[in-house]
């Protein structure tokens, strides 16, 4: 996830509250204001008397010649580095993004600058320090960074079979985000093949819509979370982040507000794509839905062989949630 810090120099209480309300990851203040920031909200303070001290916990470096790039890359191996450049051009920034796998920050005063910095080499810098004077632009910049989430590639798979199973411990993931048509979470028996399980955002005659919820599957199943990782559903708890995905592949991080685990009857769904089989287990109930390629939700009790549903496929295996290149067979 991209980081975003807001510079508050000179001191401005309204600027701090704007940063807090916009979800900033830290505020950067002059000396002597760390305690005052803490009275306004819980957020890391960058200052000599704050949580992160410049020159100790992070570094500021001016890029003036090519030789500076090696110094920046060396510092970025262990600490955040804020790079200053009087006249940014694409090439030096591309060089830095390529050389620094993490911890690379730059200052941004406009939305246009931020878009450029965040898009370099399709990866972008790791964080922005917002220096815009106008509070309206500060809000725009905060939204821009916080709403950035890489898309995922979704593929139509053809349902091969639906089998009823016995009882099991099923997980509902309740988030702090409202989801709509075509949105849900990626769940599956294998991290290499995750089904787009639709949110409970549809009205039905049985229970009220709960657009903040995905009835995801049993405790063993994988779920995609931000950062390209997966986790087991059984691991999730309030305050964790999961990835909301829509039928076009757009993604959005969402905070878990509650996880409900209850014993429910289950069913196994298998599907294929170009000879590759994938599967997931869900609760056997009409309100649990997968997602068709056009974004429409389809109840799992109405699925038939030949129906198409969306899945996310990948070749690599997973080790503690991280993608790895090794032979892993999951059945």
From TrEMBL:
HAMAP family linked to this entry: Arch_DHQ_synthase (MF_01244)
InterPro entries in alphabetical order: DHQS, DHQS/DOIS_N, DHQS_C
Superkingdom, natural source: Bacteria
One Pfam family from the record: DHQS_2nd
Protein name (Swiss-Prot/TrEMBL): 3-dehydroquinate synthase
Organism: Desulfobacca acetoxidans (strain ATCC 700848 / DSM 11109 / ASRB2)
Keyword Amino-acid biosynthesis attached: yes
Ranges of residues in domain 3-dehydroquinate synthase N-terminal: 1-144
Gene Ontology BP annotations: amino acid biosynthetic process; aromatic amino acid family biosynthetic process
GO molecular function ontology, one term from the record: 3-dehydroquinate synthase activity
PANTHER family in UniProt: 3-DEHYDROQUINATE SYNTHASE, PTHR33563
Keyword vocabulary terms for this entry: Amino-acid biosynthesis, Aromatic amino acid biosynthesis
Domain 3-dehydroquinate synthase C-terminal: 157-331
């Amino acid at each position: 996830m991209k980081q975003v810090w807001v510079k508050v120099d000179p001191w401005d209480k309204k600027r701090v509250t704007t940063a807090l309300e916009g979800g900033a990851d830290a505020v950067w203040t002059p000396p002597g204001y760390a305690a005052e920031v803490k009275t306004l909200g819980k957020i890391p303070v960058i200052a000599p008397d704050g949580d992160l001290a410049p020159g100790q916990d992070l570094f500021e470096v001016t890029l003036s010649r090519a030789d500076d790039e090696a110094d920046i890359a060396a510092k970025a191996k262990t600490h955040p580095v804020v790079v200053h450049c009087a006249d940014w051009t694409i090439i030096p920034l591309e060089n830095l993004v390529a050389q620094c796998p993490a911890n690379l920050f730059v200052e941004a005063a406009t939305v246009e600058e931020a878009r450029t910095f965040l898009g370099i080499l399709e990866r972008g810098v790791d964080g922005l320090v917002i220096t815009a004077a106008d509070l309206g632009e500060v809000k725009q910049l905060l939204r821009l960074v916080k709403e950035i989430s890489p898309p995922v590639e979704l593929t139509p798979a053809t349902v091969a079979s639906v089998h009823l199973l016995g009882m099991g411990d099923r997980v509902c993931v309740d988030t702090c985000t409202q989801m709509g048509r075509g949105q849900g979470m990626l769940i599956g028996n294998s991290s290499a093949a995750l089904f787009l399980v639709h949110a409970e955002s549809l009205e039905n005659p049985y229970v009220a819509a709960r657009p903040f919820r995905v009835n995801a599957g049993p405790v063993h199943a994988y779920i995609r979370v931000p950062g390209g990782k997966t986790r087991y559903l059984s691991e999730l708890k309030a305050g964790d982040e999961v990835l909301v995905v829509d039928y076009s592949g757009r993604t959005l991080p969402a905070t878990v507000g509650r996880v409900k685990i209850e014993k429910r009857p289950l069913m196994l769904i298998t599907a294929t794509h170009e000879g590759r089989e994938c599967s997931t287990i869900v609760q056997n109930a009409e309100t649990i839905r997968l997602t068709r390629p056009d974004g429409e939700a389809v109840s799992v009790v109405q699925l038939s062989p030949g129906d198409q549903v969306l899945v996310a496929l990948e070749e690599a295996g997973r080790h503690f949630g991280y993608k790895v290149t090794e032979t892993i067979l999951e059945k």
